[in-house]
Every structure is written in C-alpha cells, then in structure tokens.
Write a structure and sequence with these properties.
about 60 residues, mainly alpha, YbdD/YjiX family protein, Sel_put
Length: about 60
C-alpha cells in the first residue's frame, strides 16, 4: 500500500509540473532566475509587468495593407 501511495504522489507531482510548464506559469520564475544570474545589477520586472509584456509579445497585431 505504501508503494502505491508513493507512485501516486510521484504521478501527482509530475502532473502538476507538466501543467505548470504547459500553461506557462513557470515563465516568470525562469525569467527571475535568468536575470539574477546573467544580469545581476539590472532590476527585475514585477510579475504583473512581466506578464503584460509577455502577453503583448504573444498577441498578433493584424494590419490592413
């Protein structure tokens, strides 16, 4: 029974990890880690600004002509 619980817990952790990665929820965490390592003196964007910029970059701006 303990072994089954361990497998279920591992499966649940894996599912949560996958859903967070697929939904892009971890993008901000990766951004902060990158900024702190690669650009240590630069201020880090707050989550709201980061998400706004991320969404703007993903939005397709349709043009006429």
């Amino acid at each position: 029974m303990t072994r089954v619980r361990g497998w279920l817990a591992d499966g649940a952790r894996g599912l949560v990890w996958y859903l967070r990665e697929a939904s892009g929820e971890t993008a901000y965490e990766r951004y902060v880690a990158h900024e702190l390592v690669v650009h240590p003196g630069r201020p880090v964007l707050d989550r709201r600004t980061f998400e706004r910029r991320r969404q703007d970059d993903r939005t397709v701006h349709a043009r006429c002509c």
